[in-house]
Amino acid sequence: MNMASGDTHTVLRLADTKLVLGNVCATSVFNGRSLGDFATLLAITGTSLGATRALYRWLESQGESYARLERGRGPEAIASMDVMDAPPESWADLMITVFVTEAATSAVAGRLANHADRLLANQASMVSRDSAFHMAYCIGWLKVIAEHEMESLRAAMEMRLPLALRWVEQSDMSAREAFLEACAPLAGLASQPLPGAAPRPQQWDAQLARPQALPEGLWNIVRFKDAELLA
User: Fold this and answer.
1) Closest by alpha carbon to 201, among 162, 143, 149?
2) pTM of the entire structure?
3) CA distance linking residue 224 with residue 170, whole number of Å
4) For residues 63, 8, 111 and 132, what is the CA-based torsion angle, rounded to 10 degrees?
5) What is the pLDDT of residues 122-154, one digit of tens each?
6) CB of 193 within 8 A of CB of 187?
């Protein structure tokens, strides 16, 4: 791969995380509690996959093959945040998973919003803008969940947030404070401090910022990789 700079590594991680997030939300649509949930999860799917393609196009401008990025890689080459490796176990878990993933991508993208490359800066700003809307939706649900399913909320936060924080620290340590600030409402809802970052395992891919290939179950729901389905 023509991934020489830290910026291109970061952009690949953002793009692949949005790819997986979009597919997780698409798969979760039928678990929605209302018509509004259907519409919002589909909106998150669309904006996430749109961001993925826009960021892949920027990587193409840096010498990467767009065809390879979108449909030429296996699960071992996807640089998605591992917070989504395990499927959500409940509605509370889904809301926490989406929230911390969006908070993490927004924090890291925010560090690129003043990039000298204006195309990348604009795309990064759009990622942060869209993430803010998605996080607001999740917080609305988490306020309801906190009233009736506090233990589910806390368990999901303790499982997912440390992985997201680790991803932020491994991708751009300077984005750490922005991520924690964005997640501060979770501490209030859970009535307990935010957990720390998960330790980095011995088998860690520094370029992809994850410990292993995407699990088979997750890889099976990821789209963009089937060339024969493209017109």
Assistant:
1) 162
2) 0.93
3) 26
4) 90
5) 999 999 999 999 999 999 999 999 999 999 999
6) yes
Residue 38 vs residues 34, 45, 105, 128, 216: alpha-carbon distances, Å: 7, 11, 23, 22, 26
* pLDDT at residue 10 in the model: 94
Q: Report how far residue 203's alpha carbon sits from residue 190's, in angstroms, rounded to the nearest whole number.
A: 32
Does the pLDDT at position 226 exceed 80? no
pLDDT digits (tens, 9 = 90+) for 21-80: 999 999 999 888 888 999 999 999 999 999 999 999 999 999 999 999 998 899 999 999
CA atoms of 21 and 98, how far apart (whole Å): 7
Residue 103, both tokens: 């908070």
The crossing angle, in degrees rounded to 10, of helices 176-190 and 150-171 is 170
> CA 95 from chain center: how many Å?
13
Place of tokens 């991803």: 167
Beta bridge partners of 210: 205
Average pLDDT of span 4-15: 86
Instruction: Determine the Cα–Cα distance for residues 84 and 52; give it in Å rounded to an integer.
Output: 16
List Cβ<8 Å contacts ≥24 apart for 189-194: 189/139, 189/142, 189/143, 189/146, 189/153, 190/146, 190/150, 190/153, 190/154, 190/157, 191/150, 192/154, 194/157, 194/161
* Residue 85, H or E segment: none
